[in-house]
Amino acid sequence: MSRPETAEKQIIRFRPGLRSGVFLFALTALTACSPRADLIPDAAARDAGNPIPIYVGTTRARDEGTVFSKAQPDGLNYAVVNVSVPPDRAPGVVKVPSGKPDASTDFLTRDVMHYPDRGAFRAAARRALAARTNPRDEIVVTVHGFNNTAADGVFRAAQMAEDFGITGPVFHYAWPSRGEPLGYAADRDAALIARDGLEEMLHDLRDAGARDIVLVAHSMGTQLTMEVLRQMALRGDRATLSRLGGVVLMSPDIDPVLFRRQVEEIGDLPQPFVIFSSSRDPALRLSARLTGHDDRLGNITSVDAVAGLDVTVIDLSGTKDAASRHLAAATSPTLIGFLNGSGSLLRSLKTDATGKTGVLPGTVLLAQEATAVILAPVVAIEQELE
């Protein structure tokens, strides 16, 4: 298949050479969330290497016992969490203590500092931006998904920063998920309520001088992210939208029809705009059933769902080494190796005028888990696959 001179659409398929149901999903989720992370500073982390600072914006209320409440919403507030990332682990893995904490194998919180107000956060963000080794490095803002505690999201942000080789400051937006596998409906409401908080955080980063902000959202957090982009577009806030250097949606838990309507109202999307999908994602299969739809954006089986939209879809259905099939993009050592190859998440995912992607070329990938890549306009791909 020849590659067109300009590729409006890209589908990149990773191919190697479950039955789903409420019980299976609940069992999987319960197993995955025991034990759960927390943000209480741990003495075992005090002498462990160089911590990764994660700047957290959240609409969770503060709680002396757990740093942030389990689900109680509040106004936007900020903190910086210094996370000790263990040296003895496989890429993509976040391990928390099940017994005595061990800084060599466990993700731990070294310390937490709350900012008294948004002005103090903007000043801290400005200092972090000025301290970058390369002033052109992107600013990454992660948004967690369903069934996440505050610590789950923060530790995952630290894992991605370490594994993807992100050298610029990393920010994380923690909306008040209940962190419960059976709290799906409550989390959908909480994500919508949290829209203004994420928008305000992006405004604060803009005012601190941030450019090339890359939004990296997972699962239910992708719907929150899309709603915020739509909200800013409807307000005419192009000043903030222009600061976005890319959007990455990992396993997006969004109805494809809703996604298309959101894109139509947003207009020109930040580029690159990347969707990581997998038809083997058991969480999204269940989500589709719970919402009464055939599929979600993160497990589409046909490119018709995004035809004509200026997005790139990377299909991870064939990836076998991911620690989580619902977060394959951040837990597959193979994919992590590719995205870490350029030293910049943004450069890894950007495309040139010919449709070539940074470290994912339009030829056969020489990797165990990824053996074929297809780059072409969406209509051409459908014709080739028939």
TrEMBL record:
Q: Which UniProt keywords apply?
A: Hydrolase
Q: Which Pfam families match?
A: DUF900
Q: Name one GO molecular function term.
A: hydrolase activity
Source organism lineage?
A: Bacteria, Pseudomonadati, Pseudomonadota, Alphaproteobacteria, Rhodobacterales
Q: Known InterPro entries for this protein?
A: AB_hydrolase_fold (IPR029058), DUF900_hydrolase (IPR010297)
The identity of this protein, by name, is Alpha/beta hydrolase
